[in-house]
Amino acid sequence: MDINLITNEILGANITDVKVFDDKAKLIIHALNAKQDAINLYNKTKYSVGNKVSFTNSNKNYDGTITKINKKKAVVDVDMSYYNIPNQLWNVPYTQLTLITPTK
């Protein structure tokens, strides 16, 4: 399904024909959702439990270990002993993660 082709058809469609416009709009939404699902699946398979990762939050870099894999985010256990604080669990989107070392 080519998103550009469908978008061009909608832009050239007669707006008075609401049914055709609605059907084509649903096709675009479906195509975009399918693309996002594919990206999420790729990110989910890229990381696994036990991976050492880093991420940035509020201009601070944090390193941690992935403890759980979810659909859109990973749960990362961050060692805060340097700050005399117990470990913290962060829900981090895959787009913000950088792989440091994979599991063996």
Short description:
By secondary structure, this protein is α+β, with helices and mostly antiparallel strands. Helix content is 37%, strand content 31%.
**Helix and strand sequence:** HHEEEEE
> Based on DSSP secondary structure assignment, what is the total number of beta strands?
5
Into which percentage range does the β-strand content fall? 25-35%
Which structural class should the secondary elements be placed in?
alpha+beta
- How big is the Rg? 21 Å
Which residues sit in consecutive blocks of at least 5 with pLDDT less than 50? none
Biggest β-sheet: count, sense, barrel? Answer: 5 strands, antiparallel
How is this structure best described in words?
- The model has no long low-confidence stretch (mean pLDDT 81).
- A 5-stranded antiparallel sheet has the order 4-3-2-1-5, with no helix packed on it.
- Helix 1 (3-11) packs antiparallel against helix 2 (18-46).
- 37% of the residues lie in helices and 31% in strands.
- It is an alpha+beta fold and 104 residues long.
- The chain folds into 2 domains: 3-45; 48-101, Ribosomal protein L21 (SH3 type barrels).
Question: What is the strand and helix layout of this fold?
Answer:
Layout (H helix, E strand, L loop, with lengths): L2 H9 L6 H29 L5 E6 L2 E10 L3 E6 L9 E6 L4 E4 L3
Antiparallel strand pairs: 1-2, 1-5, 2-3, 3-4
Helix pairs in contact: 1-2
